[in-house]
Structure formats: structure tokens, C-alpha cells
Amino acid sequence: MRRQSQCDGGVVVAGFQNSHVHFTADEFANARHASTAALDTALTRMLTRYGYTTVVDLASDRDNTLAIRDRIEKGSVRGPRILTAGLSLFPPNGLPVYLDHMPKALLDKFPQPASEAAAREAVRKNFDAGADVVKLFIATPQGDSTVKRISADVARAAVNEAHARGKLAVAHPTDIEGIKDALNAGVDILAHPPLGAPIPWPDSLLKQMRDSGMSMMSTLYLLQLELDKQRVPADIATRLVNESAAGLGRFSALGGQVIFGTDVGYTTDYDPTREYELMTQAGLTPMQILASLTTTPASLWREQDRRGRVASGMDADIVVLSADPAEAPRNFAAIRCVIRGGEVIYSTP
Ligand SMILES: [Zn+2]
């Protein structure tokens, strides 16, 4: 078996989870009818070639994501296991300015509940359709520089509905008030660290997050890409990225739980090498980065008995690296082979 021999040697670790992806790029459009080869290529290019055996889609066109998942699970297309937030929740009349470029037909589908009952209903419908996670855009920047917010009651109702079904809730925080709102609502995961926050997130707040068991996603490279896009001068951009990395690092040093996520699909540079470097700059050790990719998300999703480690009796989700990340964290991106549930879903050409 040529393909299997290509997996020989190297460094063996558990399959990775990227907990922040989107399927909104053009190559995933109309997934139900896309050719197998086209979908296979798109999934390989964005996800599988980087070792992800599980990904969490944090807001896309739900039915399209479910179609991708369906085609993977039926075995016609090779790809990761997909968990999805389906249609995420926004404040009433509160879609954020950074989604302006998305098709109106998609934006119109996103629930913007104004009451607890409407929030519960939106979450219930989402889960019934096949979603696995609730995502709250708890604070959304508007074109006029104001910020709209999901009210405390509505946010809590949505999170409670998720927890009642044994599901997790993720929030996009935007600012300090957004984090406080997320904490009050009982949100499990923050979708981002303090990306370019004008003032550092206070240690007291980071400790409160840690104590309530709230996890933080990395997504540091996202900030660098956003600043590049906005043509922010290099010295300022570097300072903002450094400060954000320091924020993630402080949270981790205080004992806060970090999980790996990149926001690929929203970003167009899919290579996570820089993310690994920035996490290292933040002070995370290679073992901590590995945990953020494997054991930590597995435990969060209460699947630590079946994935996240290489051990007998576990799902055979395995990544073979061609070099040791203990020597250089960029080697987490040196993927030789990716095995999901015992099947090779990627090997270097
Ligand atoms: Zn995102």
C-alpha cells in the first residue's frame, strides 16, 4: 500500500482540532452539488493537509455546512469531522459591519432574537437541523462605530438552551463588556483573545474567566492578517499583535484554558505556521500547543475517552509529522500524513 508506506516514520500525535473555521469561501459554495473532486480539493487545501481531523464551524450557511458534512460522512469525500454552530445568533438589527461583504441571502438567515423565547426557539431550531454548538455574536461593531449587544436575558436563555442539550456555547466578545456579558451568560468558549484591544484585558477578568472554566481560542494570526488588510503601518501592527499574544499568554500563565483556532475560511491564508509561532511567542510551550489541538478540545467536548490521545481503544485520529514540534513549533504544520478513524484522509504527495 503506497499511501500507507508514506505515513511511515516521523512523529506521531493525535489528530488536531481547529475549533474556529468557516465554510463561507467560494470553493465550498453549493456543496450539495459540487463535484467530489472539487470538494475534496477544497477540504484538503483549507483543512486536512494541516492535520485537522475535527473542525468546528463557527457560523456559515448552516445547510451548506451540513451538506459538506453529509458528503464526508457518506464516504464520497475525504475530510475532517465537522462540528458546526450552524446559524449563529446576533443582536436585534445587529449584524456586524465586518460581515457586510457576505451575501444578503445568507445574512437574512441569521437569527437576531429580541426575547428569551425567540432565543430559545432559534437555538432549538438550529440543533434540530443538525448544529452542535451555539455561537453568540454577543457584541457587534456597527458601521457608525457603535456596538450593538445581545441583552443579558437573551444571551442567558440561548446558553441555557444549549447546556440543557449537553452542548457548548461560544461567544465572539469584541470588547471587555462583551466578555463580561459572556461570563454572565455562562458561555463556555471565547472565540478570540483580545485582538488589538485598546487596553489590555485586566488580570481580574482573565482570572474570572479561568475560574468559571471559560476557554479562549488563539486566532492570533487572524489579527495580523486583518491589520495587513487595513494597511496598518508595520510598527503599529507588530505592537498590536505582540500585545494580543501577550494577552493570550497571560491568560494561559494564569491557568486559563487555551484551545487552538484560526478562523480560516474567514481568513484566506490557511497555513497555520504563523499561528504556532505566535502562540509560542505568547509563552505557550510545544506541549501546551499540542494540548490546545488535542486533549483540551477533546475534554471540552466531553470526548476525552475516545479522542485527543494516541492510545489503544481510542478513535484512530492520528497525525504523522515529518519533524518534531518540540524542536520548533512550526513543525506542527509539517504534516506528512493524516488519519481519521483509521482511514488516511491526507498524505503528502
Ligand atoms: Zn470566525
Compose a concise summary of this entry.
With 349 residues, this protein is α/β, with parallel strands linked by helices. It contains 13 helices and 14 strands.
SSE topology:
Elements: H1 2-5, E1 11-14, E2 16-21, H2 36-46, E3 52-57, H3 62-73, E4 81-84, H4 104-107, H5 116-129, E5 133-137, E6 139-141, E7 147-149, H6 152-164, E8 168-172, H7 176-185, E9 189-190, H8 203-211, E10 215-217, H9 220-229, H10 234-253, E11 257-259, H11 273-281, H12 286-293, H13 295-300, E12 318-321, E13 335-340, E14 343-347
Bound molecules: zinc ion (ZN).
Residues 20, 22, 58, 263, 266 line the site of zinc ion.
Beta-strand content: 15-25%
Overall pLDDT confidence: 94
Let me know the number of strands.
Answer: 14
The whole-angstrom Rg is: 19 Å
Describe the structure.
The radius of gyration is 19 Å and the shape is globular. β13 and β14 (343-347) form a beta hairpin. The two termini are 14 Å apart. The protein has 13 helices and 14 strands. It has 349 residues and is of the alpha/beta class. 37% of the residues lie in helices and 17% in strands. The mean pLDDT is 94. It has helices at 2-5, 36-46, 62-73, 104-107, 116-129, 152-164, 176-185, 203-211, 220-229, 234-253, 273-281, 286-293, 295-300, and strands spanning 11-14, 16-21, 52-57, 81-84, 133-137, 139-141, 147-149, 168-172, 189-190, 215-217, 257-259, 318-321, 335-340, 343-347. Residues 20, 22, 58, 263, 266 line the site of zinc ion. Zinc ion is lined by residues 20, 22, 58, 263, 266.
